[in-house]
Amino acid sequence: MSVSRLKYITRIGVEQMGELADSLSNPAVLRLENLDTDIAPPATAVAATRHAAGMDEANSYLPFLGMDTLRQAACRLVGRQARQDYDWKTECIISAGGLSGVLNVLLATLEPGDEVLMTDPTYVGLINRVRLAGGVPRYVPLLPSPSGWRLDLDALSRIDPVPVTAALLMSPSMPTGAVFTESEWQALTRFCEMADCWLINNSAMERLLFDGRTVIHPASFRGMRERVITVGSASKEYRMIGWRVGWIIGPASIIADVARVSISNVVCQTGIAMQAVAIAIDDPNDGIGDSVIELQARRDLLLGELREFHVIPPHGGWSFLIDVSPHGIDGATASRKLLQAADIAATAMVNWGSENCSKYLRIVYSNESLSRLSGIGERFRRALS
User: Fold this and answer.
1) Which residue of 158, 234, 252, 256 has the smallest Cβ count within 10 Å?
2) Is 203 strand, coil or helix?
């Protein structure tokens, strides 16, 4: 019998589809179900990791809050985006990946029953972490359109701010690829001021922006430095998924509490990975710009191939959603048909927000090349016609 804290913890769907696709051992299957990437990490980071694997000081629990050089690099990075100065000794700790950092922040900020503002749809792994920490998701819709997603500002204005203790937000968002505009960030920061709540900024993809968009960091808005907790990661922007390194940056008082949770949770980070991430952050040849060009090209190819389907274009990130309800099916049915009839592995959005999400199918384009993606439209037509 499961303990009560697991009552509302759901499967994410990716693990099931990933295992099923693996079991087929079929190289023809397009792997569009999981946030892996075939775009290489920075070469300097790979070399630094190999070097660190032979160093005794990298094989250590210490320092518990993360390597000094990495904390300094993370503060410089977030400081540039937010146009703020951060003290690396008191306002930054290193986590064992971004999602571990998110959970630690939630555990340090929520009391049982506290509401957490989130977009709908959103990554179910974030929803599950809110619930594990005792929080209650409070959704504000993202509205789909042929030109992309927009935050439902009217719905946001109707949400009672009093029960909300934190807003957990991401731009570009998973799984939609939605990117908040300045006016949308302004509305969200204003809501956080009314709620007197934290804004937890999941910045894992903040520079993976298309069509010339630029980063807007919520801590750059007037009065928000003391409300924003930024959780970053090397996994997406630097393509360093297996390194399991992230950072948490915010006001010293809450970072001290997050540090207490962190030491009680994962204890320490991946020792042989931290210096490599510090090097990647400061490397002018980090490859982020080139990866954005490649990701945007893949997005554009897919939008063209799937133009007869109800695709909501992403403005950044690694994935987008397709509304399959016009075909008289839900996302789970579409996922099954695509794998069986077209050798395409894609994840249905069951549990990724409200019940409305069941009509969506997620397409991840970070791990398949342009040549492999070419012709996908015909495969979709074969499976879903």
Assistant:
1) 158
2) coil
Q: Which residue has the tokens 């968002």?
A: 173
Structure confidence at residue 267 (pLDDT)? 84
Residues 219 and 262 in one domain: yes
CA separation for the pair 9, 207 (Å, rounded): 30
Same domain, yes or no: 101 and 197: yes
% helix / strand / coil in the chain, to the nearest 5?
A: 45, 15, 40
Cβ within 8 Å of residue 334, ≥6 positions away: 322, 324, 327, 346, 348, 361, 383, 384
The encoded tokens of residue 227 equal: 């409300």
- What sign does the CA torsion over 24, 29, 33, 37 have? positive
Residue that has been written with the tokens 């990117």 in this structure: 179
- The Cβ of residue 290 has, within 10 Å, a number of other Cβ atoms equal to 12
Using the 3D structure, point to which of 252, 282, 312 is the last residue of a domain.
282
Mean predicted confidence (pLDDT) in 194-222: 98
Q: Which residue has the tokens 């999981």?
A: 34
Long-range contacts of 47-54 (CB under 8 A, 24+ apart): 48/275, 48/276, 48/279, 49/243, 49/272, 49/273, 49/276, 52/271, 52/272, 52/273, 52/275, 52/276, 53/272
Residue corresponding to tokens 């990130």: 317
Answer whether 232's CB lies under 8 Å from 200's CB.
no
Domain end (from 254, 282, 310): 282
Q: Tell me the pLDDT tens digit for each residue of 273-304.
A: 999 999 999 999 999 999 999 999 999 999 99
Q: Is the domain of 258 the same as that of 136?
A: yes
Among residues 152, 129, 148, the alpha carbon closest in space to that of 139 is found at 152
Rounded Cα gap, residues 331 and 286, in angstroms: 36
- The boundaries of the domain holding residue 70 are 43-282
